[in-house]
Specification:
By secondary structure, the chain is of the alpha+beta class. It has a single domain, classed as Nucleoside Triphosphate Pyrophosphohydrolase, CATH 3.90.79. Helix content is about 20%, strand content about 35%. It contains two helices and seven strands, in the order E-E-E-E-H-E-E-E-H. Strands 1, 2, 3, 4, 5, 6 and 7 form a seven-stranded mixed sheet that branches. The N and C termini lie far apart (about 40 Å). The protein binds 8-OXO-2'-deoxyguanosine-5'-triphosphate (8DG). 8-OXO-2'-deoxyguanosine-5'-triphosphate binds near residues 34, 39 and 99. One of its GO terms (biological process) is DNA repair. It comes from Streptomyces brasiliensis. Its cofactor is Mg(2+). This is 8-oxo-dGTP diphosphatase.
């Protein structure tokens, strides 16, 4: 069986805005925008991995809420799973501490203003569809 390594990405939603992060490395990904997160390490649940990655990369105390249905292939052997996330009360505001050099909080009509990684576009589209349906409730 082919090995698959899950990369967890955060749809960090705040006041109807989605947090996007601009990668600073490696060179082939630098300057493109992504959902912050990273690889699930052996022995971790996806939720633990995502909370750890967000603490390391953004300095926040985040709570994973729920999985966005779907999975998106990245460069083999990676596969992207996305979870909605919110900040716990008292958390610091996100800052680009590691792996990123800029952050943006995108309103629904700004989502496509940034140059998302090609492989993230379908995942972001799914996040936006859910954001819109939540707003409609
Ligand atoms: N975090 C994240 N990684 C992504 C996304 N889209 C995408 O292709 N990737 C790729 C970049 C990397 O090749 C791989 C894992 O990302 P990473 O570098 O953030 O993972 P990590 O923090 O665990 O990595 P490491 O530096 O500890 O090795 O997934 C995305 O939306 N979020």
């Amino acid at each position: 069986m082919t090995e698959r390594i899950v990369v967890v990405g955060a749809a960090l939603l705040d006041g109807g805005r989605l947090l996007a992060a601009r990668r600073s490395a490696p060179p082939e990904l630098a300057g493109r925008w992504e959902l912050p997160g990273g690889k699930v390490e052996p022995g971790e649940t996806p939720e633990q991995a995502l909370e750890r990655e967000l603490r390391e990369e953004l300095g926040v105390d985040a709570e994973v809420v729920e999985r966005v249905p779907g999975e998106w292939p990245l460069k083999a052997p990676y596969i992207l799973h996305v979870w909605t996330v919110r900040l716990r009360p008292g958390s610091a505001e996100p800052a680009p501490l590691e792996d990123h050099d800029a952050l943006r909080r995108l309103a629904p009509d700004e989502i496509w203003d940034v140059d998302w990684l090609d492989q993230d576009v379908a995942a972001v589209r799914e996040v936006v569809a859910r954001l819109r349906s939540t707003e409609a409730c």
